[in-house]
Predict the structure.
Amino acid sequence: MIPFEITYHRPRSIEEAVHLFDTLQQQGKKPLYYGGGTEIITLSRLHLVAADAVIDIKHIPECRTLEFNPHELVLGSALPLTTLEEANPFPLLTKAAREVADRTARNQITLGGNICGQIFYRETVLPLLLSDSQAVIAGKDGVKQCSIHDVFLQHIRLKPGQFLVQMKVDRSYASLPHFHRKRRKQGKVGYPLVTAAAIKKDGQIRVALSGVCPFPFRSKEMEERLNARHLPLHDRIEGAIRALPRPILDDIEGSAAYRLFVLKQMLFDMIDELGGE
Amino acid sequence: MESSTKCEMQLLVNGETKSVVARQGDTLLFVLRNELGLTGAKPGCLNGDCGACTALVDGTPIKSCMMLAIETVGKEITTIEGLHNTPIQRAFVEHFAFQCGYCTPGFIMNAYALTETKPDADDATIQEWLESNICRCTSYQEIEAAVKEVLRQKRKTE
Ligand SMILES: Cc1cc2nc3c(=O)[nH]c(=O)nc-3n(C[C@H](O)[C@H](O)[C@H](O)COP(=O)(O)OP(=O)(O)OC[C@H]3O[C@@H](n4cnc5c(N)ncnc54)[C@H](O)[C@@H]3O)c2cc1C
Ligand code: FES
Ligand code: FES
């Protein structure tokens, strides 16, 4: 139960959603776009989310698109993760999605919600960072498309009133050799100690991580070190660890030292599997 | 003071249209239990973790503590009260797949959806689906046996 009063709105088009947001804001209200609603509802209970209105984007056709044209995959932001898994247009994204929460929760958690949420693991963004995907964003100025790297740096950076409509991925990425591994403190459901996703493109390994820092990221510095094949493997991996952004997470799920230990083993496995020796 | 956002909603629950007056921020779990007297879906963690509140919306299992009732307007809601002597209910009894029974409605709704939509489910799929629910009495082996029994019977009769 959301412990404060909110109004619920169900626009049928992008224009209607953007207009609603603007109107509500002009009335002095705080609206929120609403995907699966799982984070909005559960964090409201803890008073970690505040809003006067939610704008449910699940009935906007563009947000429900799941299209494979010859060149690109178009993934609507309001698609539940299980829909993406079953259609499996991008195997690395399927693997990332499948490790989020549990199957029933993933019938509700949406792609856009996972990317834009405040719970900082945002594991489905990893394949989208690796594939240099494009984000389709709607706002008062209309709909625009830009590189994910322009709008996602640790977290989504949208202007007030904007929302994520779709992600577009060049189809060539869907068939590249890839690696995905999630390690938890225990069990098969839960937040990661470390999640690593990687692809190999043109002989070069690209890597993105969640659970290591309080944000997901892809690091060019780490990639440079991992791909420095003139060096011994051990040095490449030590170099990649030194190039990690800071801070390293140090919490009840795992200490910083333990996360780095787990990550290091994972990087060895990744290079072994992707053949980057 | 905040003004109330209560409104009338028509919900299709277990094949019957019900008219309820609820706050727009009320979860489906809250409305089922407190407005409709359908107490089969259980409040557990209220955080999406335990699955005790699982119901079906258009045949898909969802955690009703993480869905607003108003979101389900125009959809078909099924709760444990809507299942009558189904194979999965019988199998739970025959396999002693519960002890205190608190988790049972949630497990049955999830397992019912699994056996209805994925009769060819392999062990990995069964495990993936059942991991959505927690049983504090640890009846996991018996629950798995009940689900497998229903799937076996289904395959035999198809
Ligand atoms: C039980 C449970 C387990 C979880 N486990 C994991 C896990 O293992 N790994 C992991 O990465 N995450 C995990 N999460 C976090 C989850 O992925 C996020 O909380 C996610 O936000 C939920 O998606 P949603 O569609 O329900 O989001 P919502 O609750 O709808 O929205 C969350 C936030 O994102 C914003 N938002 C939603 N969609 C859009 C959009 N299209 N454009 C702009 N803003 C938008 C909303 O305004 C809100 O601020 C878990 C969450 C739960 C409840
Ligand atoms: S009460 Fe809904 S998942 Fe626990
Ligand atoms: S039977 Fe008691 S919680 Fe499952």
